[in-house]
Design brief:
This protein is of the alpha/beta class. It is built from 15 helices and 13 strands. It has a 7-stranded parallel sheet. Strands 10-9-8-11-12-13 form a 6-stranded parallel sheet, sandwiched between helices. This is DUF2827 domain-containing protein. Pfam families: DUF2827.
Length: 375
């Protein structure tokens, strides 16, 4: 195989769509960057599947990561990786008629989204569910494979495989360039500013356990904690009576040391308002946010098993263990801040798009895929 032309789908909602509202656009760009390094790949193109026009208003370099409308490149591709924009039945039939391979790159918690929607009366598909059974392969990033791989394999009638997770600091560096010290953590005296930035849109990444971890540390060392900031929680703090009642049980809230805010730009909020980040996950053991925090040298208190060597790891749902790691970070982090940041970056290099093992694995996946009969 040589000269493979690959399209990676995105679904634009606006011509100047931000990269920070969710990870899907970044995921597409990072995958494109990875495949560019594969020796058997001639080109990678981000392919928009919606009617929103592709313009220079997009927040990435269109020379480095070419981006086009589906109809403009549909005859110029050998492989389409469906990532951020779904290929419908008509487009699938057209691609297949040309001998194009079709891969689903699975990077969302599809089983969890479906289960929560049905249990809690939300509507995902409005009855118009299209399950594509003509994929040539399913590629799962590691953190979603445990909950969604079998679910999607059954529905799509094809087996899948776990593929390397990829990330790059390119957008983080760009967003941080004009921040003081490039957004990198700076040691300082005085009590610590604690930050929780879970999305709070489902149980996978929710702010309750981080708040409990902060509470335990505050009970033991109130003088060392300046504030607990819980982002993406303003609506709950203002309107959800049970959330309000629960938070009011905590000393850190009663002591007026906790604030509940809306959404924030991650690099800016870290640089301007944060010393320590506290996180918790269920079924999401690897995440861009963890890498962003650690790359910039901030102390990350977390329970993400797939990156347990990063930051200050605690196991499972053990708030007491999390509080011990938080106190450890309060006491020791600033003494070794530079060494910590360098160690984090060295560990994160295993996820970078130019990592030789990552590139080799993706080249092998492509070779195997193109050598199989098309479905």
């Amino acid at each position: 195989m040589s000269g493979l032309r690959i399209g990676i789908t995105i679904g634009l909602h606006s011509a100047d769509e931000t990269l920070w509202n969710n990870g899907i656009k970044q995921n597409a760009v990072f995958l494109a960057e990875t495949l560019r390094h594969c020796p058997g790949v001639a080109s990678t193109t981000l392919v928009n599947t919606t009617a929103v026009p592709v313009t220079t208003a997009l927040p990435w370099d269109l020379q480095r990561w070419p981006t086009a409308m589906f109809q403009d490149v549909k005859d110029q591709l050998d492989l389409v990786i469906e990532l951020g924009g779904q290929i419908d039945a008509e487009r699938t039939n057209y691609l297949k008629s040309r001998g194009v391979r079709l891969v689903s790159y699975c990077c969302g918690f599809e089983y969890i989204h479906a289960a929560e929607a049905m249990i809690f009366g939300k509507v995902l598909w409005d009855g118009n569910l299209f399950v594509n059974s003509r994929y040539d392969d399913l590629w799962f990033i590691p953190q979603v494979a445990g909950n969604s791989q079998s679910y999607l394999e059954v529905l799509r009638r094809v087996s899948g495989r776990v593929v390397p997770f990829v990330w790059s600091p390119v957008f983080l560096d760009g967003q941080s360039r004009n921040l003081p010290h490039g957004g990198v953590y700076q040691p300082h005296d005085g009590p610590r500013r604690l930050t929780v930035m879970e999305p709070n849109i489902n149980i996978v990444k929710f702010c309750l356990y981080p708040a409990l971890i902060a509470e335990l540390a505050y009970r033991e060392r109130p003088q060392d904690i300046k504030v607990l900031q819980v982002a993406n929680a303003l609506q709950m703090a203002q309107n959800h009576v049970d959330f309000i009642a629960l938070m009011n049980q905590l000393d850190i809230v009663r002591g007026h040391k906790a604030v509940f805010t809306g959404r924030h730009d991650t690099p800016t909020f870290l640089a301007q308002e944060t010393d320590v980040v506290i996180s918790h996950q269920l079924e999401n053991p690897l995440n861009y946010f963890y890498l962003e925090v650690c790359w910039q040298g901030y102390a990350l208190i977390h329970n993400a098993t797939l990156c347990a060597r990063l930051g200050y790891y605690y196991e499972g749902n053990d708030a007491h263990a999390g509080a011990r790691r938080l106190i450890e970070a309060i006491d020791l982090h600033d003494q070794n801040a530079h060494e910590y940041r360098e160690r984090q970056r060295e560990l994160i290099r295993s996820y970078l798009p130019d990592n030789p093992e990552v590139v080799s694995t993706y080249q092998t996946l492509l070779d195997e895929l193109m050598n199989r009969p098309i479905r």
